[in-house]
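User: Reverse transcriptase, Paspalum notatum var. saurae:
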Amino acid sequence: MEVKPTDGIRVVREFPDVFPDELPGMPLHRDVEFLIELLPGTAPIAKKQYRVPPKEQGLIKENIDELLGKGFIRTSSSPWAFPVLFVDKKDGSRRMCVDYRALNDVTIKNKYPLPRIDDLFDQLQGYHQMKIRPSDIPKTTFITRFGLYEYTVMSFGLTNAPAYFMNLMNKVFMEYLDKFVVVFIDDILIYSKTEEEHEEHLRLVLQKLREHKLYAKLSKCEFWLDQVPFLGHIVSKGGIMVDPSKISSVMDWKVPEVVKEVRGFLGLAGYYRRFIESFSRIAKPMTSLLEKGVPFIWTKERQAAFDELKKRLTTAPVLTLPDLTKSFTVYCDASKEGLGCVLMQEGKVIAYASRQLRKHEVNYPTHDLELAAVLHALKIWRHYLFGNRCEIYTDHKSLKYIFTQNELNMRQRRWLELIKDYDLEIHYHPGKANVVADALSLNLGFVRAKSYVNMAVGFEDAS
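Assistant: Predicted structure for Reverse transcriptase:
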């Protein structure tokens, strides 16, 4: 079956109210409210407002008026106060956000259980679609030159948003779960045996969204797909297979042409030699090129060793399925050649990833490049890291302090808005100890590509 244009799907046309251009107003009273529970002994936090250029003051006023009109915020006299800032969206517009870093630091993290990795998923975002518990509303207060305002609905930047929305979605779709619907955090996947059955399933899902006044963005929806990438696998009527994009960073590594490239590849392979039986024997034709005075001649034996090591690196037991009850570790590195990341758990590799720098990134300062590598990892492994504890290691020491820095450029502000949804801590790791991510960032032989498909129901674009 081919993908059908969304505007040509009859069942979708039956539910125009589920796909508004913008949220129409306050959400219903739901069984699930968004809570902000604080660490014992926490006192109200009041931050000063950031300096805002005159042209942005007008944007702040426009945002305030719009949010007031919908009931999403109200005036406040709270002792809490957090500053606002603007981040750029992909379409060129700007979004007003609140810097809730200080609030998130003292918020107890919600441990709502997320699906295990062998479930299914797709995408829906629910900011402004859930009310905040009345007693917690004052904690969301933000400060502007026009006064203090507090959110009555779940807003961007609040740390437990994914877990609470997951809870809501499970309640809404309870009767359909594991029959033809799977929910993963803020995502929905509908699966069916036939096209006729799928149309009925889709109608039932859209009816649920209508009943609960949950809204979707049509441009992020796709329907009637034969296969879907899911948590590192390709799921189709033929069964489940490994997603080639998961291991493309290693499988597409170009054949070394100079000694430096041989050393980079062996540095990556050698880091995991304890997972590779007979590593020294397999690698010997390549390691001989590192010896002084040996001319660089790429023989059939060296090509065979190169191919075998790539095969061993990308098959069990090196790449393992993650356990979402345990924390993750991500190693990130950036160079002028590209970004490199490795996702691990308990010392075992789950996935490799890297990409070349885009033209506009080549002139980024080192600090921003290293932060871009972190963001790259969070985006491509979102389905693993959302709602789970994550330790991130980088060889750029100043990134440790990104959450407490007061002076951030516009790019860093925008990226920080994305990072704040994750429960993570950034650590410094010297370059020599970060050999895997470093090797991936320096290798130019591939470009990683990944897409999210199926029914994507989303309202806000967080990038």
